[in-house]
Amino acid sequence: NADEVFPTASIIKVPILLEFYNQALEGRLDLETIHQLSNDVKVGGSGVLQFLSDDVKITLEDWAKLMINLSDNTATNYMIGVVGMYNVNNLLERFGFTDTRLMRKMQAKDIDPEKQENQTTPREFSNLIRMIYTHDGLDASVCNQTIEVLKYYKEGIIRDALPGDFEVADKSGWMGAVQCDSGIVYAEKPYIVTVMAKHIPAWDRNGAETREALKQAVSEIHDYYQNIATATRYGRRIR
Asked: Scanning 5, 22, 138, 205, which has the fewest C-beta atoms within 10 Å of its C-beta?
């Protein structure tokens, strides 16, 4: 189902981060500018900022890092306000993505969920990660900054599925009846993998069975790339 549209959950935070570093490169914002937390921007769900006092002051780049590392929804909504939803979608459109769009803020209220959902396809999101990895049409410094933040340790399907300590640059996400993860695995032969699930049935409490199925898919993909990394192009094992 590589070309089927899925809700993104929190992985939509990746193009927000990309546009953030792109605007910093262009001089449109300063990573070190101090921005103060206020109660009017706090939202629920994942993250820690919602629980902090409203006199907390952090740099703009730290807001962006919290958006990814802790998947902080308050930080995400703040970053959407800083970089602009239109600019994120314009970036995606320039790259030729037709189904990947940022359509709403996190924990948004008073919207029509049938019409306003952050969305992508597994193929498009994998291609977005590939473009960041290969610096395809993007400044190398922007890509490298984005990847470094994605490498921060966080729980996710991909990391949980790997046997051993492999470096991973990814973003995971979950919400009602949806789970997903996408990123780069720095194995002997690096690869990009995106797994997504939707319509998770109510009987699958907390999506536990779905998560195991997605982990199994990642595990088998990992085994494949580990095998071809140790063989010639003719298929003969050399180590």
From this structure: 205
In order, the DSSP letters of the chain are -TTS-EE-GGGGHHHHHHHHHHHHHTTSS-TT-EEE--GGG---SS-SGGGS-TT-EEEHHHHHHHHHHS--HHHHHHHHHHH-HHHHHHHHHHTT-SS-B--S-TT--SS-TTT---EE-HHHHHHHHHHHHHTTTS-HHHHHHHHHHHTS----HHHHHSSS--EEEEEEEEETTEEEEEEEEESSS-EEEEEEE-S--TTSGGGHHHHHHHHHHHHHHHHHHHHHHTB-TT--B--
Query: What count of Cα atoms within 13 Å lies in the side-chain half-sphere of residue 33?
Result: 10
Q: Over the stretch 176-223, which tens digit does the pLDDT of each residue have?
A: 899 999 999 999 999 999 999 999 999 998 899 999 999 999 999 999
CA distance 221 to 225: 6
Angle at 182 between CA 66 and CA 222, to 5 degrees: 130
